[in-house]
């Protein structure tokens, strides 16, 4: 098996620079669709590996223009545990991420908000969608500070690392950002969707409980049973809801979660 997935060779690539950060972005638009809504897909650890590309191409099939910023790892490189370890180590020491900070967002989110504005300008529509996964999970929440973001999705949000009770409940945004987010949700029509496995220690249940407290009906949290003896046979170690641990078979809980995500994007971006 090849060590690198070459599908990204067929995507447009450009270097995005803002707020003192620079990173490559892969962009692709569905053929024959004029100015489709844009979705920013912020990859999980270890990087843009094949299952993340699968998800991005599913969004293309649904008629969205997809922007894939590469923030860690080697784009297209296949998943492996050593690769995961090296990417986490890099995130822990990089200035882009703040893996333990309480009540503040990672610095890279400033540049990602600028990318959202660019995507909205290029694609038009009511706004853009944004999904963060794992280390970038709560980035989608931080991006809501910008009014261009109309469909934020938090997939297994894992920052800050759950090293204390405070960290488990933290949302990886500042107090000022949280107030802005709450005001946008209260005013409507922006809502927030969250996805996680019930026994995922990296994305603790306290974080979803806090989101419900802060956003009320404006937050929809899908928590898939991964406990012992669960009917779908999902492993207790399951983490990546719409990528590596997705079972795209009718009736499977992860497939249902993926469909709800697609319905959420359609409802928020195609109104």
Helix-strand layout with pairing:
Layout: E1 12-18, E2 21-28, E3 38-42, H1 50-61, E4 65-69, H2 81-93, H3 108-123, E5 128-133, H4 139-143, E6 149-155, H5 165-169, H6 175-187, E7 192-197, H7 205-215, E8 219-224, H8 253-269
Parallel strand pairs: 3-4, 3-5, 5-6, 6-7, 7-8
Antiparallel strand pairs: 1-2, 2-4
Brief write-up:
With 271 residues, this protein is α/β, with parallel strands linked by helices. It has one domain: 3-Layer(aba) Sandwich (Rossmann fold). The chain contains eight helices and eight strands, in the order E-E-E-H-E-H-H-E-H-E-H-H-E-H-E-H.
As an assembly, this protein is single chain
CATH class: Alpha Beta
* Helix percent band: 25-40%
Average pLDDT for all residues = 97
Characteristic terms for this protein:
single chain, 271 residues, alpha/beta, Rossmann fold, 8-stranded mixed beta sheet, 8 helices
Structure explained in plain terms:
There is one protein chain. Strands 1-2-4-3-5-6-7-8 form an 8-stranded mixed β-sheet, with helices on both faces. The model has no long low-confidence stretch (mean pLDDT 97). The protein is of the alpha/beta class and 271 residues long. It is built from 8 helices and 8 strands; from the N terminus they run βββαβααβαβααβαβα. Helix 7 (205-215) links the parallel strand 7 and strand 8 (219-224). The chain starts with 11 loop residues before the first strand and ends with a helix. It has one domain: Alpha/Beta hydrolase fold, catalytic domain (Rossmann fold, 3-Layer(aba) Sandwich), CATH 3.40.50. Helices cover 34% and strands 18% of the residues. It is globular and about 45 Å long.
């Amino acid at each position: 098996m090849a060590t690198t997935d070459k599908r990204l060779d067929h995507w447009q690539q450009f270097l995005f620079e803002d707020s003192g950060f620079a990173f490559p972005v892969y962009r692709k638009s569905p053929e024959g669709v004029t100015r489709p809504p844009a979705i920013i897909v912020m990859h999980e650890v270890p990087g843009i590996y094949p299952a993340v590309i699968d998800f991005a191409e599913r969004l293309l099939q649904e008629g969205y223009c997809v922007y894939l910023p590469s923030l860690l790892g080697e784009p297209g490189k296949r998943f492996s545990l050593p690769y995961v370890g090296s990417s986490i180590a890099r995130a822990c020491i990089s200035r882009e991420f703040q893996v333990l900070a309480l009540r503040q967002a990672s610095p890279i989110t400033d540049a990602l908000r600028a990318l959202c504005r660019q995507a909205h300008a290029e694609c038009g529509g009511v706004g853009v969608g944004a999904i963060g996964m794992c280390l970038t999970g709560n980035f989608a929440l931080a991006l809501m500070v910008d009014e261009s973001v109309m469909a934020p999705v938090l997939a297994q949000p894992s920052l800050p690392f759950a090293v204390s009770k405070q960290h488990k409940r933290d949302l990886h945004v500042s107090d000022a950002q949280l107030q802005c987010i709450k005001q946008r949700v209260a005013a409507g029509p922006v809502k927030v969707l969250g996805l996680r496995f019930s026994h995922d220690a990296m994305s603790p249940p306290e974080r979803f409980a806090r989101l419900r407290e802060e956003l009320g009906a404006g937050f929809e949290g899908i928590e898939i049973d991964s406990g012992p003896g669960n009917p779908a046979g999902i492993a207790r170690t399951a983490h990546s809801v719409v990528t590596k641990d997705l079972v795209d078979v009718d009736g499977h809980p992860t497939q249902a979660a993926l469909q709800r995500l697609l319905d959420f994007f359609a409802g928020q971006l195609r109104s």
